[in-house]
Amino acid sequence: MSPATATTSPSAPAKPTPLGGVGRLDAAVSLRLHSLFLPVPRLLLKALEVAGDGRIWLPVPISLLLLSASPANASGAVSPLLAGLVAGLVLDLVLVGLVKVVVRRPRPAYNAKDMYVAVAADHWSFPSGHSSRAFLVAAFLAGSGFRPREALFLWAAATSASRVLLGRHYVLDVVAGACLGVFEAWLSNLFLRFIAPDTVRITKDEELTFLQFTAKGLLIKL
């Protein structure tokens, strides 16, 4: 076949990037932040990773809940606060897993190979389970009357930021996770109000202030 008559086969279309152009911009910003904060001690970031790990936040509250319901408990009363927290954590596990397998966003290529993968969904990046879990716990406890709120949300924000600095997630992953966690905490507090109205110590007047405080915390994180 002569060069004049030769035809070139069309190149295969590029595989679409999850989340489109927003995802590409997010990836660039996340890589920049990861590179900029490389001097942060990895041991500190790993400690935050462990502090928000589901292998701690699921078994421990469930075990305490079962203990409170056991005959060994003199009062014989199940802790409503633990019941609400466990309900939120289970909801978080389900929702995060579903979104991960639907969106199927790969984790950053520069993510180190020292990450523990519990289930297949953990291979995907969006949203961050650590971020959703941390903000769920912080918002739920704050909504249940625990103080100081600032310390709770500072821990949640630091845990979320560590996911980007470790290279585990992109910025959008942790922002989406934080928003999801706050929503789950709201649902969990509704559940807690239903099963034990007296347990939730936050008043109706405080609820708007709490929501405003949470929104400010998310904006600062952004």
Automatic annotation (TrEMBL):
Keywords: Membrane, Transmembrane, Transmembrane helix. The keyword GTP-binding does not apply. InterPro entries: PAP2/HPO, PAP2/HPO_sf. SUPFAM superfamilies: Acid phosphatase/Vanadium-dependent haloperoxidase (SSF48317). The chain crosses the membrane at residues 81-103. Residues 82-189 form the Phosphatidic acid phosphatase type 2/haloperoxidase domain. The keyword Transmembrane helix applies. Pfam families: PAP2. GO terms for molecular function: sphingosine-1-phosphate phosphatase activity. SMART domains: acidPPc. It comes from the Eukaryota. This is Phosphatidic acid phosphatase type 2/haloperoxidase domain-containing protein.
